[in-house]
């Protein structure tokens, strides 16, 4: 399976690096193959959400406005092939030099109706501390659209990576941005398969949308020059075809992973939607039928599609 299209592989990494250094971002449509996108969607569906499932699964955050599958390196060989691709590793070498590390990764879905603040991604949350810490390390983020994005698109203030470091805060109000940088806002509508690589110091957000039917499916991973910190990376050993020194460094083999996993969720960030209600309701019925006579138990299990041995 090819992850990237020929068109994308042909682009010189030095050109990508130059654009990111100058404007803060690089955008390319049709960078990912259809097969890769389909594989990711299928792997996410298989991982699903997990209530007492003995596997890696997805979670809901912000009361159902977002779905995340953070541990893509445990759930998807295709994702492993993507974020450890030699094109990516070579690009990182061009960008950072010899040392760099995968800091965070995830698949996520944004549902309509949410309002994200303008912010930068050069912050970190240590497991041992409750407050965020400023990082001075250079970093980049790969965003990939897995669905067509016509609304609620990513927006970036061009060249903001140059000035944002003068501030120690990471969030910016809509008023501040409109007064000072309105002309610099660049929007990124795009078809699925579009890739956006941006400097983590740049100010960005997802454009607010009121359309609640809208879903944006995105792949995210962040790489930093600092090799001494990252979020925990859960990795399926089966996926590693070749373990060379670059891969060991990039994935943080044997290194501390002190940053908090994003997002932090529990049962209370889970919405009571059609899906979660369906699971819980059927589970409840499955407990209840145990007290019923055999013929009735069978009928009810069939009706609610509950496996017969449960
Ligand atoms: Fe961000």
Describe the 3D structure.
- The protein is of the alpha+beta class.
- The chain folds into 2 domains: 6-266, Jelly Rolls (Sandwich), CATH 2.60.120.620; 272-310.
- It has 11 helices and 14 strands.
- Strands 1-12-8-14-4-3-2 form a 7-stranded antiparallel β-sheet. A 3-stranded antiparallel β-sheet has the order 11-9-13, with no helix packed on it.
- The structure holds fe (ii) ion (FE2).
- Residues 119, 121, 204 line the site of fe (ii) ion.
Do you know the CATH architecture of the largest domain?
Sandwich
Coarse morphology:
globular
Q: Give the beta-strand count.
A: 14
| CATH topology tier name of the largest domain | Jelly Rolls
What oligomeric state do the depicted chains represent? single chain
Main sheet makeup: 7 strands, antiparallel
List ligands, each type once. Answer: fe (ii) ion
Number of domains: 2
User: What integer is the average pLDDT?
Assistant: 93
Strand order of the largest sheet: 1-12-8-14-4-3-2
The H-and-E topology, N to C, reads as HHEHEEHHHEEEEEEHEHEEEEHHH
Considering the protein shown, what is the CATH homologous superfamily of the largest domain?
Answer: q2cbj1_9rhob like domain
Detail the poorly predicted runs. none
Structural class: alpha+beta
Helix content: 25-40%
Straight-line distance between termini:
38 Å
> What percent of residues are in strands?
15-25%
CATH class designation of the largest domain: Mainly Beta
Number of helical segments with 4 or more residues: 11
Structural descriptors:
310 residues, alpha+beta, Jelly Rolls, 2 domains, 7-stranded antiparallel beta sheet, 3-stranded antiparallel beta sheet, 23% strand, globular, binds fe (ii) ion
């Amino acid at each position: 399976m090819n992850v990237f299209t020929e068109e994308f592989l042909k682009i010189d990494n030095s050109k990508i690096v130059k654009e990111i250094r100058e404007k803060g971002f690089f955008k390319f449509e049709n960078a990912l193959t259809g097969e890769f996108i389909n594989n990711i969607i299928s792997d996410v569906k298989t991982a699903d959400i997990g209530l007492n499932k003995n596997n890696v699964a997805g979670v809901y955050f912000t009361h159902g406005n977002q779905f995340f599958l953070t541990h893509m390196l445990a759930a998807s060989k295709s994702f492993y092939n993507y974020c450890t691709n030699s094109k990516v590793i070579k690009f990182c070498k061009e960008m950072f030099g010899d040392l760099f590390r995968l800091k965070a990764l995830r698949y996520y879905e944004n549902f309509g109706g949410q309002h994200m603040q303008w912010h930068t991604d050069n912050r970190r949350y240590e497991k041992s501390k409750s407050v965020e810490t400023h990082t001075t390390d250079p970093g980049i983020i790969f965003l990939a659209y897995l669905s067509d994005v016509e609304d609620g698109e990513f927006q970036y203030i061009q060249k903001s990576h140059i000035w944002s470091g003068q501030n120690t805060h990471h969030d910016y109000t809509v008023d501040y941005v409109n007064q000072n940088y309105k002309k610099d806002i660049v929007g990124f509508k795009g078809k699925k398969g579009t890739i956006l690589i941006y400097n983590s110091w740049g100010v960005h957000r997802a454009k607010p949308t009121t359309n609640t039917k809208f879903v944006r499916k995105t792949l995210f991973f962040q790489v930093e020059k600092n090799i001494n910190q990252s979020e925990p990376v859960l990795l399926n050993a089966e996926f590693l075809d070749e373990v060379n020194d670059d891969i060991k460094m990039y994935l943080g083999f044997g290194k501390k992973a002190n940053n908090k996993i994003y997002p932090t969720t529990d049962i209370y960030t889970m919405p009571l939607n059609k899906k979660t209600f369906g699971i819980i309701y059927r589970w409840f019925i499955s407990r209840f039928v145990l007290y019923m006579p055999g013929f009735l138990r069978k009928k009810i299990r069939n009706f609610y599609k509950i496996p017969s041995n449960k």
